[in-house]
């Protein structure tokens, strides 16, 4: 089955800095890579996703890049703000599967 | 207002008791999932169901049971056989196959007292 590794487990940055979270996956058939943000005590919510026919996708201060050859994808947050503080999960899935496989999560702390 | 609803938000259980966590969705999704979340452990899959009256074990099914009698509902029972049940439990749903996001409930925090 699919295996997703996520690093780092904790990331501490100063407000205004950039943050990068990296994930690797094992199943070359995976073709959908969503990222979820979970604020303390709340549900995970999708913030951005990328499909395997695209190498990069941006949405304001958030971007995701995908390298299918190396089987890794990354989340980039620019100009971080305290409200970006949360746990971020990456996931990988292929269209024929029901189940997304999640990484272990990264706790992002943005210091004012 | 479409969504996925878990209840209760907080649940306390005495040792040796079974408890059932509710999960209901009105998104018309075929697939539903239960995850357990512990600090530093990420989301671990307990059970999932792709269709009514069918469900499969996930990575950590021991001590848990589920049912899927209706498309909208996927309750999780934490049995007395679960040795360390204190955790945050998340229910999720997806339309089924295909590349779409998972929708999560707001979670149930279970504490054994």
Structure overview:
The complex is a heterodimer of chains A (112) and B (113). Chain A is an all-beta fold and 112 residues long. Chain A is built from no helices and eleven strands. Chain A has strands at 4-7, 10-14, 19-25, 32-38, 45-51, 56-59, 62-67, 72-77, 86-92, 101-102, 106-111. In chain A, strands 2, 4, 5, 9, 10 and 11 form a six-stranded mixed beta sheet that branches. Chain A has a five-stranded antiparallel beta sheet with strand order 1-3-8-7-6, with no helix packed on it. In chain A, β9 (86-92) and β10 form a beta hairpin. Chain B is an all-beta fold. Chain B contains no helices and eleven strands. In chain B, the strands form two sheets. In chain B, strands 2, 4, 5, 6, 9, 10 and 11 form a seven-stranded mixed beta sheet that branches. Chain B has a four-stranded antiparallel beta sheet with strand order 1-3-8-7, with no helix packed on it. In chain B, β5 (42-51) and β6 (54-57) form a beta hairpin. Chains A and B meet through β4 and β5 of A and β4 and β5 of B.
